[in-house]
Design brief:
This protein is an alpha+beta fold and 128 residues long. The protein has 2 domains: 4-59, Multidrug-efflux Transporter Regulator, Chain: A, Domain 2, CATH 1.10.1660.10; 67-127, OB fold (Dihydrolipoamide Acetyltransferase, E2P) (Beta Barrel), CATH 2.40.50. It has 5 helices and 8 strands, in the order βααββααβββαββ. The protein has a 5-stranded antiparallel beta sheet. Strands 1-3-2 form a 3-stranded antiparallel beta sheet. Strand 2 (33-34) and strand 3 form a beta hairpin.
C-alpha cells in the first residue's frame, strides 16, 4: 500500500500550490483523507493518478486564466492576416479571431483537438 503524503509534499510532487489541492479536494478532483489531528493527507495513489495526467491538464499550463474549454476545431476561415477558428467544446461553441500565422503555427484545422483559454474578454486557442 502506498504511503499518505502531507498536502505540502503532494503539492510539490504535482507542481501545484497547496491552495490548488484544497480546491481540487472541495471539487472532488482529488481524494484526501484526514489524520488524527484533522489535517488533510493525500494517498500516494492519488498523487500517482494525477501525475499520469499531462501537466497542462492538471494546472492549466501555468496560465493565470482558469476558464479552459477543451474541444475539437470545427472550422478555420482565414482571410488576409486574420482567421476565425470555431471550436466545439462539449455543448459549447467558441469562435475566436486569431492571426493566420497562429493557425499555421499551431496546425489548427477541422478535426484537430484544441483548447480555448478564456480570460476576461480575450479567447486564446492552443492545440491540444
Amino acid at each position: 500500500m502506498m504511503q499518505e503524503m502531507t498536502l505540502a509534499d503532494a503539492a510539490r510532487a504535482l507542481g501545484v500550490s497547496m491552495d490548488t489541492l484544497r480546491r481540487w479536494d472541495r471539487a472532488g478532483k482529488l481524494r484526501t483523507v484526514r489524520d488524527e489531528r484533522n489535517r488533510r493527507r493525500v494517498p500516494g495513489a492519488e498523487v500517482q493518478r494525477l501525475s499520469a495526467q499531462p501537466a497542462r491538464a492538471r494546472t492549466g499550463n501555468a496560465l493565470s486564466a482558469r476558464n479552459r474549454l477543451e474541444g475539437v476545431v470545427r472550422s478555420v476561415q482565414a482571410d488576409g492576416v486574420m482567421a476565425l477558428v470555431e471550436l466545439q467544446a462539449g455543448p459549447f461553441r467558441v469562435v475566436a479571431a486569431v492571426t493566420r500565422d497562429a493557425v499555421v503555427e499551431l496546425g489548427l484545422a477541422a478535426g484537430v483537438p484544441a483548447t480555448a483559454t478564456i480570460k476576461a474578454t480575450s479567447v486564446m486557442i492552443e492545440r491540444a
